[in-house]
């Protein structure tokens, strides 16, 4: 055999077969059809759809200013998402068969609309207090509990509910100030303790299914790769992410397996931006011309995408083809990037949630 089909192609063929098979199956046994009444999202900018309040332009509010959101449907306006379009939580909603992401916690205070889910995630958040004052995971879960206790979220919704816990490394900014490896390992243990504790708390509150992100390869973000002119992943971030992920898996393994699913962002990101075999690049990676160089790049390495001078002049450049860039800004994927990441995880998420549509 001379022709070798890429593994990813093979698996998508299998996926088609499986999807067809499960379609037939569900037509016969409607018991396997699942509708989730509640989608509750916790975490940081990977999942935030507009919780951080809009204020004057700064690094922490840049998601409310151009060019953020510039590929977002007809409006092409910033939506408070850290991307040119959709982010991870939007794609999770889609996998659940919804037309849109759950409303933001901020909006629930203003209107009494649909509570088929709430997004509590805030850009910049971690499990510990961060300088940006974004509420920690524990505080976000407390807000959820308050809504439950107050009847703003019905207990009935939790019987068929999904939570996403998206903690993407904001806590690790602190590692820069740590000198010993021991201290870093200790800190990783503390972070994963907090995540596992949060997951347990969500389960105790009655959430039936919890998806938990692994930490993506931190050394491959444009922020880290910039000194190499975006030619390679730099620093110790990937090692730290692996230690974090292994620790997290152990701790989540210790609790019930069938209600918690570790969403392997690390694997899905790595396949695209740092494939192990340069001679066998996965199909999902090939659509991206720029894997480490962001679409929106500040002129100053310490600046940010969206930054302007006193006269409103842009202090950044924006690419003309965001769909060919995996990264949007110095730390966040483009909408196309998220789509490619979630496409790789979709089948496993559906299997875990018994979602058949
Ligand atoms: C590191 O320490 C310095 C001096 O104490 C402090 O100003 C800075 O905020 C710290 N950085 C982080 C990321 O915690
Ligand atoms: C980890 O948590 C323990 C217990 O709360 C604390 O004593 C220790 O200082 C923490 N380690 C780091 C590096 O933050
Ligand atoms: C960085 O990469 C770009 C595009 O490949 C190239 O044009 C530029 O000369 C490089 N800069 C440096 C400093 O190597
Ligand atoms: C977690 O459990 C799975 C399934 O039992 C196992 O394959 C995996 O090695 C475990 N991971 C860790 C880090 O213990």
From TrEMBL:
UniProt-recorded name of the protein: SGNH hydrolase-type esterase domain-containing protein
Similarity comment: Belongs to the 'GDSL' lipolytic enzyme family.
Domain of life: Eukaryota
InterPro entries in UniProt: GDSL, SGNH_hydro_sf
One Pfam match: Lipase_GDSL
Upper classification of the organism: Eukaryota, Viridiplantae, Streptophyta, Embryophyta, Tracheophyta
Signal peptide start-end: 1-26
GO molecular function ontology, one term from the record: hydrolase activity, acting on ester bonds
GO BP field: lipid metabolic process
Keyword annotations from UniProtKB, A to Z: Hydrolase, Lipid metabolism, Signal
């Amino acid at each position: 055999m001379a022709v070798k089909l890429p593994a990813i192609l093979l698996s998508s063929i299998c996926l088609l077969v499986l999807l067809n098979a499960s379609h037939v199956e569900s037509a016969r046994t409607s018991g396997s059809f699942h509708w989730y009444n509640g989608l509750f999202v916790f975490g940081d900018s990977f999942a935030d759809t507009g919780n951080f309040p809009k204020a004057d332009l700064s690094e922490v509010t840049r998601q409310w200013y151009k060019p953020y959101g510039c590929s977002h449907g007809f409006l092409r306006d910033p939506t408070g998402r850290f991307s040119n379009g959709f982010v991870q939580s939007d794609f999770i909603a889609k996998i659940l068969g919804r037309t849109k992401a759950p409303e933001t916690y901020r909006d629930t205070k203003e209107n009494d609309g649909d509570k088929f889910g709430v997004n509590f995630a805030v850009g910049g958040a971690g499990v510990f207090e961060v300088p940006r004052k974004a509420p920690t995971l524990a505080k976000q879960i407390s807000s959820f509990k308050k809504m439950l206790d107050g009847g703003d979220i019905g207990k009935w919704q939790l019987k068929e509910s999904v939570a996403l816990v998206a903690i993407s490394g904001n806590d690790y900014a602190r590692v820069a100030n740590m000198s010993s490896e021991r201290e870093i390992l200790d800190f990783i243990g503390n972070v994963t303790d907090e995540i596992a504790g949060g997951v347990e708390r969500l389960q105790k509150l009655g959430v039936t299914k919890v998806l938990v992100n692994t930490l993506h390869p931190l050394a491959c973000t444009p922020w880290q790769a910039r000194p190499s002119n975006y030619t390679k992943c730099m620093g110790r971030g990937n090692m730290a992410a692996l230690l974090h992920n292994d620790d997290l898996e152990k701790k989540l393994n210790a609790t019930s397996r069938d209600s918690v699913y570790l969403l392997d962002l690390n694997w899905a990101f790595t396949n695209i931006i740092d494939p192990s075999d340069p001679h066998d690049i996965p199909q999902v990676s090939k659509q991206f011309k720029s894997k480490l160089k962001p679409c929106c790049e500040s002129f100053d390495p310490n600046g940010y995408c969206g930054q302007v001078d006193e006269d409103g002049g842009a202090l950044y450049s924006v690419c003309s083809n965001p769909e060919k860039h995996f990264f949007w800004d110095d730390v966040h994927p483009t909408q196309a990037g998220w789509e490619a990441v979630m496409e790789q995880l979709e089948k496993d998420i559906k299997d875990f949630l018994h979602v058949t549509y």
